C-alpha cells in the first residue's frame, strides 16, 4: 500500500515542472521585450528598426517588397543633394476639387471665406491653352523622380503605407531653361491595396508637380515645383480614401 506522501508526489512534481516551464518562458519573453526595446533605442534614428522590419515581414505582399526594393535602388543611385532648383517665379495655385464643396454650397452650409475665394479663383482660370503631353513619365518613373528629390523622407512614407505613386493626366509646360528637353505638369496620388487612393498621404508628398527631362539625360525624369495651372484630375482621384 502506497503512503500518503507517495500519492501527492506526482502532483507536486507536475506543479513544480509547470512552474519551471512558466518561469523559463516568462524569462525568455522578458529578454525578448528588453532586447527589442534596447534595439529600438539604439537604432532610434534609423529608418528600419527591428520592430519595423518585423512589421514588414508580417504584412508585406510580393508587390510591396518589389516596390520597397525599387525605392532602395533609386535612393542608392540618386545624388546626395537634389540638383533641381525650384522655380523662382510666382507659383500658380493647386487644382481644386470643386465637386467636394458642391453639396455644401447647395445646402448653404458654412464654408470658410478663404475656401470660397479659392474656388472662385479656380473657376476663373483659363485652361484653354493646355495641351495634353504625349511624352510623360510612367507612374514608376514619376515615383522614382519624387523619391530622388525627397530621398529617405518620401521613401519611408511610401514604405510605411505600402504605397506606390500613380501619375494622372499630364500637360505640356513651358521649358524653364535651355538645358531642358521636356517639361510636363501632372497631378499624382499614392495608392495601396488595402485602402486604394491615399491622396498625398502627408508632407512632403504634394498633389502636383512638374516632371522634367534634360538634354544631358534624355531618358531620366526629374521633379520640380509645378509651373502652371491645370485642371483637377477627377479620374486619378476617383474614390479617395
Order of helices and strands: HHHHHHHEEEEE
- If helices are DSSP runs of H or I spanning 4 or more residues, what is the number of helices? 7
Taking pLDDT < 50 over at least 5 consecutive residues as the criterion, the unreliable ranges are: 41-45, 83-88
> Radius of gyration from the CA trace?
28 Å
Amino- and carboxy-terminal Cα gap: 76 Å
In short:
With 241 residues, this protein is α+β, with helices and mostly antiparallel strands.
Summary tags:
single chain; 44% helix; 5-stranded antiparallel β-sheet; flat; alpha+beta; 241 residues
Q: What would you note in describing this structure?
A:
The protein has helices at 4-42, 50-59, 62-77, 99-106, 113-123, 139-150, 152-160; strands spanning 164-172, 180-192, 196-199, 208-214, 217-224. Strands 1, 2, 3, 4 and 5 form a five-stranded antiparallel β-sheet that branches. It is α+β, with helices and mostly antiparallel strands and 241 residues long. It is built from seven helices and five strands, in the order H-H-H-H-H-H-H-E-E-E-E-E. The model is unreliable at 41-45 and 83-88 (pLDDT under 50).
Please render the helix and strand layout as text.
Elements: H1 4-42, H2 50-59, H3 62-77, H4 99-106, H5 113-123, H6 139-150, H7 152-160, E1 164-172, E2 180-192, E3 196-199, E4 208-214, E5 217-224
